[in-house]
Every structure is written in C-alpha cells, then in structure tokens.
Structure prediction request, 334 residues.
Amino acid sequence: RENVVLTPDEMYHLRQLGTQQDVENVQAILARHLADLRMRLETRMEWCRWQALFGSLTHVAKDMEYNVDYKIPADLRPTLTGADLWSASTSDPADDMLEWMEKYQDLVARPSAFWFNQKMLRTLLINTKVRELRDTLFQGQSNLGLLTQSNLQAVFNHFAGIPYKVYDGGYFENTDLTTGVASAGTSLVVRNVGTIAIGDAITLTDVAGDVTGRVRLIVTAVTASTNTITVAAPGADRAYAAGSTVRVKKFFIPEGKVVLKGELPSAIEGGPQWAEIISTTHPYGPSPLTPATGMFAKTIVDDDADPPKISIIVGMNGLPVVYHRDVNVIATVL
Prediction:
C-alpha cells in the first residue's frame, strides 16, 4: 500500500465552495496525489518482480515478516570469486558470459539479453579482456583506442550473438537525521534505517535544502537497533542539523549483479511469461458483498485528529507468481 496525508491547507481548498476554477484546482490536487501514489505502487510491484527473479522476496507488514523462496536452481545463480571477479585484472567477462549461455543448451528457454546497471557497464568498459576483444573486432580502424557503448554493443553482438541492456531503474528511500552531526562526523543517527545497507551511497542534504551542502557518502556499517548509519571518513566538511535529509537509491539490479534474461517459446505450457504479479481480492469493490481484484483506492477522513487530516490510500493485495524457474541466469560478479 502507498498513502498520502493531505495537509490542512489542501483540505481547506478541498472544502472551499467557490468558482469553477476552485473546483478545477481541487481536482488537480487529487489527480496529482493519485498519480503519484499509483506510480509509487507500480514501482513497488516492479521491485517485487525483480526480487522474484533473484529468488526470494521479504515483505514486512504489521510487525510480521513474510519470506518467499522461489526455488531458483542453484546452477542458474553462479557466483564468481577471487581472480574471476570482474573487478580483478585477470577476469574474463566474455568467457563467463559464454559459459552462462551454455546453460541454456538443456533448457527450454533461449538467452535473449544481458542486463546490468551503469556501474557494471563501466566495469566492462575498462576490463582488459574486453578491450582485447575490441582490438580484434575493430583492428585497422581509426577509432581502435576507443571503447564506447556503441562498439561495446558490437562486441557483444559479434562474440555472444545477443545484446546487453543497461538498466538503472529503482526507487528512492528517504529518512532524516534525528541528531545533528558535526563537521566530518561519521555516525549518522536517523529516524529509520529502513533498507539502507553497507555499501550504499547515501546523499546527505542540509535541512534548509541548500544544494551547496549536499554530500555523497558511502555506508560502512548499519546498526538497526539504534538507527545509526556509519559512513566512510571523512563525512561532511560542514555540520548538519537535525532534520537534514538522508536519501539513498535502491537499484532493481544491484551493483555486482548481471542478469541473463531468457525467452520462452510462445507455445510452451503455461504461456511464455515466466512470472507475473497475481492480485487477490480486496474489500473495496462496488460494495462489501462484491470484493474485487487489482488496484484499489481508499479515502479515510479523520475530522477528530489534531490537526484534522484526510488520507488517500492506493494499494493492491498480491505477490509475484513464478511459472518457470529455469529461465534466467543471475550472476554475482563483484
């Protein structure tokens, strides 16, 4: 579920009788909130689909934690170590990719494309073995010294026969400081650590929103019991007051992961779709006696609150359902 609470000022406009322009302004306020909530819900649904692809989904609701194991075969989740890690100078990403493609010889699915985020693209662009492949493919050309996204795509198509796709989709998670931090401080006490994890890059912004006071920090430790985030020293070159914003982007494809997506034939039993989100019924249909599926919207008016408030909720009851577990290869390369 995603929700928004209307401010007293917005409630004043909602309840004010006036001209047609006033009515249109109210409609614009509601439409803006509903569009934002729907986008947030669809982002959460996409996050769920990616979690199913990686093999497990954890959901926390009403102080209960639900864990779903999608039983993805272990041989479709290779993990590189030591000198094979793509960050190592001795690594050979092209050979790894061809080895993962060979896994499809015994599968119904066929490899269609490699997916990774921008950091993995940079890792490939500076890799020694990949540059050697470039030299072989573009030998004799004037741009031999260049390795761009364009000719990297040519390398993929030539040696692997399938393309790659860079995908930096994700969502932002925001919290704020509950205690001010001194200049160059490395311990940040926040309202809620949420899903912030070691290795995340957080952005700390001054409470006044001053862009000159924005700094990017790498998380080195997280203590959930005290909502404390430890960042690499030095922290910031200025003090940050309580209320300053801490923001992190969580990528659907994490850094260090490469996904080889498979493609199923249209005639396969169960259909070519390897997974989808299935929704169950909710009580917000046309009437309590006719429950419905899919997304729902609900408005809660609390006139007795101080200050009074109106909450708008958009949600869906459902989870990803995996039909075919042996379609994608999910590799850990960093």
